[in-house]
């Protein structure tokens, strides 16, 4: 089944405004936000650090920031986001990203938003980002099109803790603003 962000957004009420407003609150501190995201990711999930062993983190941070801005600016154009996210998912296979890495990124993203939004990190805001990232994950994994050999890489297993991010229910997840943060995993 192919996730169509456009069709899904019709089925559920997107929380686009909430996603846009919350992102606007962290945007003035965008560079610090991105640095905190990677700090959270590597502190909470040290097993993720080797994926970036040969990465210029200053450039990576700018790619993440540009991806987040792209997503937020295109929330009202889900067709473009779907194509971009599927392409991103395909590229992540080449980088060694596996499906179990997605919740790590999602949890770190949520933690970073909570840190920067403070009192504005309400249950509704959290739900919007959880739903959005869940949908983003679904779309990216569709683009990744993992086969058995790709998923069974010769690598050490990653300890994946309990997550707030749900996958598998694309239609319900799409209502959260879908691809909004999806590109947050833009570990391009």
TrEMBL record:
InterPro entries xref list: Globin, Globin-like_sf, Globin/Proto
One GO biological process term: nitric oxide catabolic process
Superkingdom of this protein's organism: Bacteria
UniProtKB keywords: Heme, Iron, Membrane, Metal-binding, Oxygen transport, Transmembrane, Transmembrane helix, Transport
Membrane-spanning segments: 170-187
Domain Globin: start-end pairs: 10-145
Entry coiled-coil feature ranges: none
GO function terms (MF aspect): FAD binding; heme binding; metal ion binding; nitric oxide dioxygenase NAD(P)H activity; oxygen binding; oxygen carrier activity
Entries under Pfam families matching the protein: Globin
UniProt cross-references to PANTHER family, sorted A to Z: FLAVOHEMOPROTEIN (PTHR43396:SF3)
Family statement: Belongs to the globin family.
Protein name per UniProt: Bacterial hemoglobin
Organism listed in the record: Halomicronema hongdechloris C2206
Originating gene: vhb
